[in-house]
Amino acid sequence: MAKITARTPKGMRDHLPADMIKRNYVINTIKSVFESFGFEPIDTPVLELKQTLLNSELGSEAEKLIYYAQHAGGKEELALRYDLTVPLSRFFAEHEHQLKLPFRRYHIAPVWRGERPQKGRYREFYQCDADIVGIKEITADAEVMSIVYTALRRLGFTDFSIKVNNRKLITGIGIYAGVPQEKLPDLYRLIDKTDKIGLNGVLDAMREEGFQEETIHRLADLLSLKGQGTLQQRLAALEDVRQILGDIAIAQEGIEELEALLQTADVLGIDSDHTELDFTMVRGLGYYTGPIFETVITKPDNLGSVQGGGRYDELIGRFRRQSLPTTGISLGIERIIDLMEMLNLYPESVHTTVVQVLVTAFDDTLQNESLRAAMELRHAGIRTEAYLEPRKSLGKQIGYADSKGIPVVVILGPDEVAQNLVQLKRLSDSHEMIVPRSELVKAVEQLLNNEA
Amino acid sequence: MAKITARTPKGMRDHLPADMIKRNYVINTIKSVFESFGFEPIDTPVLELKQTLLNSELGSEAEKLIYYAQHAGGKEELALRYDLTVPLSRFFAEHEHQLKLPFRRYHIAPVWRGERPQKGRYREFYQCDADIVGIKEITADAEVMSIVYTALRRLGFTDFSIKVNNRKLITGIGIYAGVPQEKLPDLYRLIDKTDKIGLNGVLDAMREEGFQEETIHRLADLLSLKGQGTLQQRLAALEDVRQILGDIAIAQEGIEELEALLQTADVLGIDSDHTELDFTMVRGLGYYTGPIFETVITKPDNLGSVQGGGRYDELIGRFRRQSLPTTGISLGIERIIDLMEMLNLYPESVHTTVVQVLVTAFDDTLQNESLRAAMELRHAGIRTEAYLEPRKSLGKQIGYADSKGIPVVVILGPDEVAQNLVQLKRLSDSHEMIVPRSELVKAVEQLLNNEA
Predict the structure, then answer these.
(1) From the candidates A15, A47, A96, which should be mutated to test the interface with B, based on the most B CB atoms within 10 A?
(2) Which residue ranges form the domains of chain B, and what is each CATH number?
(3) pTM, rounded to two decimals
(4) Closest CB to B14 among A42, A73, A355
(5) Which of B60, B184, B215, B451 could serve as B177's disulfide partner, Cβ 3.0–4.6 Å?
(6) B227-244 pLDDT tens trace
(7) What number is the ipTM of this complex?
């Protein structure tokens, strides 16, 4: 067989150890926040039935990006999951007799989309979702909003804003502006661009697409309302919207939900500097029905969104007789991982290697002494590599530890072994110790904790 | 759109929370053992180029089971990974300029095989591999053997045996028995059945397949040798084999490697009750070149293998100019998870839920008090669910906690709130406490730790 070039498929990546250690830090931090809010882990197969994905209102643009899979003789049509929300709905309907309501689950796992790869966008990437099934009360939405806030703070982010809006209010706005039913998707698509092209840009684009001037005028007033500042100022902004939208019932419902959301967010301790009402924030996916969220990093700006989410009360109904109220959030973990690096948010404890100690091997005859010392350190819970090529010089072995970023080196040469001693060296400051062999573990711990 | 039945593809499974908590316990325990030996985490894409898999000597039987994948307009032929060893080889060759030798990596991730599903065998399942690239010395093989021993002991297994053999010795045995080159694969396939049909069964099958009586006679003596007991007894058994195989060079090499392996295993503290030389253990995959391992649970017996592995010095050479010596092990984590349950090895700390406390909601007017208490517990690192339907009775809420296995319940009724108190209850023994509201966190910790 011919040798072939080693390469990953287009738009897909390997993760090297230093990269994995950082990813694991972020993922474990988020997991612990999810669990602190009482969310339980689940997992689903990477492969779903094709019909499961195609029955879930992902939208035709999304459906073009789905990966399909098959093995020789396989009778089912399969697809790689596109997100974690459709699998949750399918999962819940399949196992509901074993699950209690409310059902809070989190799921951190890769998904696949055949998009054109570009900087920061991959065809295989992780999603990181937390959802509550079975609660129609807006407290559930406030709780998932609080998870976003808590997770970003825990990771060290300081400048971010959780934008809040409501699908019912957006629908009400469409009705108020006099846009015909069939043009509503176009309207929402344009409003969604406010972030990128500004409100005036959106209004111009509406003109180009033939929206009525009266409609554009009405929207201009409404969409420019800002919901920032104190809780009272936000509630006042909502009151202004309520006045404008008058008797459009669905809009009033959306406004009441937003009021409840802001009040509960305050109870949950979400700092109002980190949230804002944004009536131009729409969110793409078809299945949202109530409050929606999107979080952006505000400094430096233009880094895009690190979180999306909202309420989708109808999706589970595609897989069972009756639907169930559901709300949740998805953290853009790949972007968060990139931003942690850019903003220098990793703590010092996140190293380039998991290894804490390298036990060198002086020569063939003394190697067993080194192997025994390594096992002793491992049993004490210290992450230890034993150098396995005793014919390499000590200098070379220490150079290896240094280049890998291993903090401490242990040396067992003939003098040390003869006198029942062991030599240790911390590479960062070249601090050396010689201690009785029986105190090896204690000495390593001291060096690692900078207590020696 | 029509409603569709919610189901997973054939041979694939969801993992519910109670199941995930157990899986995470096993995976985290193994991870911590891998890291204690200085192995670093990596990850690779689920999808590989089809040519990567087909160029890796998986064998034609395995190749039939590969899943292929494609998205609309995708130009590459892709396949879901079949194991973690081929991806490692491809990974190493692709990134070698960023990696140091020796390279120790672990990888815990799902793989896909289109096999006929049966009890305990799935089409999507996790593998759990640790390998060392770049060390030809047998100490590397002894270290990965020690990982198996340490991981199984740490998980609580007491009755298991790590069987050891050597591919070079097997080749030597084939030569000694006078089997022509082209019949060697048949010979190894038959010997591999010793576990299931016994040595006499194997010899009968050889007769049926037309092997020479002289060959069968020679093999009968050799394969029935046992390498158990003390290190000295094992070395003596190897000496017997050495005498029989005389001047077959490759057999002598295999024997020397086995001697070194047994001696180093002893230095690393592997209890000899948990290992045995087994000259009938062959291992299926085509790429092994030196020592091979396989671990079986011995009590109850017939539970099959929980680990496979060995040295494969040629595989990486399929992706780069020169190959590199490589050895490693793969833990059969799905079977281990099943056995943990069967043998009752999960510690008491592994619950059916991650949630430690349910904060009940007395009624609408007091719900905010409950939400604030929940946030306080979360900030203190206690995994806390807030009940979000205040209209449900307290009895119903406590019943929910009980049915989910949540150990502690917090109650903030009008009397408690008026007097700045909080009521707590541990459900396992109905132990109740009423403490000042400011001592909530401390009281919960006492109840969880059975200190109150």
Answers:
(1) A47
(2) 17-342 (3.30.930.10), 357-448 (3.40.50.800)
(3) 0.95
(4) A42
(5) B215
(6) 788 999 999 999 999 999
(7) 0.94
